[in-house]
Structures are given as C-alpha cells and as structure tokens.
Amino acid sequence: xxxxxxVLGLQxxxxxxxxxxxxxxxxxxxxxxxxxxPNAGHSLHFDGDxxxxxxxxxxxxxxxxxxxxxxxxxxxxxxxxxxxxxIEAKGVxxxxxxxxxxxxxxxxxxxxxxDAASEAxxxxxxxxxxxxxxxxxxxxxTGRNGLRVGDILQPDFAERYETLKAKHTEMLAQxxxxxxxxxxxxxxxxxxxxxxxxxxxxxxxxxxxxxxxxVSILAEGAQGSLLDIDFGTYPFxxxxxxxxxxxxxxxxxxxxRIGEVFGIFKAYCTRVGSGPFPTELFDSTGECxxxxxxxxxxxxxxxxxxGWLDLVAxxxxxxxxGVTALIMMKSDVLNDFSTIKVxxxxxxxxxxxxxxxxxxxxxxxxxxxxxxxWNCDICNVRNYDEFPQQFKDYVAFIExxxxxxxxxxxxxxxxxxxxxx
Length: 421
Ligand code: GDP
Ligand code: IMO
Ligand code: MG
What we know:
Layout (H helix, E strand, L loop, with lengths): L3 E6 L7 H8 L5 E4 L8 E5 L2 E5 L12 E4 L4 E2 L1 H12 L5 H4 E4 L3 E2 L2 H14 L11 H9 L14 H16 L9 H14 L3 E3 L1 H10 L4 E4 L24 H7 L6 E9 L2 E3 L12 H9 L12 E3 L1 E2 H11 L3 E5 L9 E10 L2 E3 L11 E8 L16 H14 L3 E5 L7 E3 L1
Helix pairs in contact: 2-7, 4-5, 4-6
Bound molecules: guanosine-5'-diphosphate, 6-O-phosphoryl inosine monophosphate (IMO) and magnesium ion.
C-alpha cells in the first residue's frame, strides 16, 4: 500500500511550493491540495511561460496527472473559474484531469466583504489578510454554517446561499464598512456554473482507494508552517492547519499513511502581511533581497518583507511537520552577498532561547552566525559537486542543525533550474 508524500512550506509562505510540485509531478499520478484557498499564489515557470495558480493543484500542466482539490480547501468559484479559463487557453483539458471534493467549502462574496470589514476595523492591528474571504469561510466551516461543493448539486442550493448571505448581511451591519456585492454575486454564480462541469467526488474515498491500488499521491501545501492556525505566529496566521497534520484532515488520510515529507524553505526568509519576523532586515540588505529575489506577492503584488534565514524557526517547522527531506529554494538570490547571516538562537527578555517560543514577538533579538558568501553565479550549476565550497558549507550547516538532508536545491524559477542530489 502506498503512502501520501507531502510538499509543504516551512516559513511564512511563498517558499516556491508551486515550482517544486511541478518539478516532482512526473513521479506521481495524483496531486492534491489539502488546505487553504485562493490566498495561495503558486508560481510555475516552464518552456518560457509562467503561471500563478491559486486553487488548482500545481500538477495540472503535466499530461496524465490527476489533480484533486481536497475537502480541506476553501474555494472562491470566481477565482477558480478564471484559473480554469487561463489553463484551458493553453490547450489543457482541465475537466479531464481535475476533481473537486464534495466536502470542500465555498467562499461567498459576503465572506470576502466580512474579511475586508474585519481587517478595516482592526486598523493598525490588522493581520494583512489577502482579503480572499479565507478567515470568514473557515469560521462558517467550524461554526457549522458553511456551504459545500456537494451542496451545489442540491435543489435548494440557491435558497441555502440566500440564508447564509442573510446571516452575513446582519454581521456586516455591525461594521461601518461600505460594500456592494451585486456585481460579485453575478460572477460568483457564473463560477458555480463553471464548477458544475467538473466531477465532484468523495475525495477521501478516492485517495484511499488510490493508496490501496499503489497509485502515488503528492499532497501540495499552501501558505507555510509559521502561518499555521495552531502553531504559527497567532493571530498573524491563516485560518487552516498548514502543517503536515492538515494532510490527514484535509484529504482524509490516516497519519500512518503519510510518507516522505518534503519541507521547502528559501535560503533566506520572507513574510507578507503583519506579524513577528525576528530576522527581518529594514536596511539596504533587506531591500537587496527583495529586488534580487523579486519578492512581491504572487496573489496581491504586495512587497514581501525580507530577512536572513532563521534556523530557530526552521527547526521548529521541521519538528512539527516530521520533515524527511529539505528543499532549499532561491539559492541564487544570495549570489552577490559577501557575508550571509543565519539566526541560530533568540534572545528574549535577556534570556537565550534555542527554540521557537510562544512569546515570538517583535521583542525577539536573533543571535547570528556569519558565513562567507560564494560571490559567484550559481544559476548554471546542475550537479551538486559544481557548487562552490562556501555554498556547500552553508548547506552542510543547515543539514547539521536540522538533522535532515537537503535533497533538492533550486537556483532559478524555471523547472530546469533544479538540482536533485
Ligand atoms: P509558493 O507560493 O510557495 O508556490 O511560492 P510563490 O510562487 O508565491 O513565490 C516563489 C517565487 O520565487 C516565484 O516567483 C517563483 O517563480 C520564484 N522562484 C522559485 N524558485 C526560485 C529560485 O530558485 N530562484 C529564483 N530566483 N526564483 C525562484
Ligand atoms: P502561498 O501558498 C504568503 C498570509 C497573508 C496574511 C496571513 C493571513 O502562496 O505560500 P489570509 O488571506 O489567509 O487571511 O491571510 O497569511 N498569507 C500568505 N503569505 N503566502 C501565502 O500563500 C499566503 N496565504 C496567506 O499575507 O499575513
Ligand atoms: Mg505564493
């Protein structure tokens, strides 16, 4: 019996999950998203083309792949329909290779209005949400009010939509926020019609049948471990379990059926939105990381906050996910830095810590170890042996600290700019 392998982000998202899933897909028959929704933006580059996927699994461009939107995902039909149209424009028959769980929840236009109203009301303490309605949709899921994909097939779907919308309208009346969803509503129902062309499935059954039949499955995480609702930098997090545990609840897979866990991290660190970020740089080095790394959000276009690699946080994420293999992304972005720093500990209130604490606030002062940079272009390296010694020292240190091998290294956005050890 097969196990589900997992790709997930170990930082605050945007580690390069889309690229890695696209690279790994030839080894798998099925690719499944298990949590999150259109707050995700997963970039793929190949054959001179580029795409940003929000809801559709990143295996979609590979012939013969099956792409599953799992029960743990929340779907905004408008964004999904737009993505489908873009992929179909490239000649891919999306309906023949994508399945949607009947248990996945729908994001309503009023969820988006609630997200915006809540953020506006928070003022300076706002989370920096992508405003895709993620939080309100998951609130309705846990509050047992949500609309699910399977409901689309019920005769009273429109009525149920109206009931939930009425509840949201009452909630919105508590805010001063001005909104008009009439235009959004029309496209929302058009999106629902697009979704009807797809197979709605009991994906938990399908996934487990696949495992029994030895069909290989790769679960594609969204966001990152430090945005996890339970273990991230709460309240500056997203509303789902982004950790490996989310695969179990978001696909219906038993913990004993989890196989390889690929943990992805950037050779440095970024965050978009508010919240603590101990190694954030506010100087020209941070700006340099942003411009060289082109660190602007794939979903919102917002500039990403940039800083050095944080090994305290990375070790925490490795522990919480049971990572079996590390994947280091955007190594090329550090090409021209004469010194590279890595946080190996924290100082909080005069005390030194070597783990990621509950009190991870702006008060945390990182303790750095310095490395000599490699000061050369590594974009054309395709064999590990060809990397400069300084680069190998950097990788070896990360492996020694985390206790996990770095099995894949990315030196550029393209599929081909990847070194598998
Ligand atoms: P995801 O959300 O984890 O899929 O990551 P995003 O797509 O939001 O952000 C990663 C960005 O880095 C995208 O623009 C990728 O094209 C780009 N990227 C991925 N790997 C590399 C790499 O190794 N080097 C460089 N320079 N860019 C990369
Ligand atoms: P991918 O999958 C980076 C961040 C937002 C905000 C917080 C809550 O592309 O890595 P939400 O919209 O979920 O209510 O926002 O989480 N965030 C992400 N940051 N990458 C993402 O996805 C993100 N999805 C949400 O910026 O701080
Ligand atoms: Mg992204």
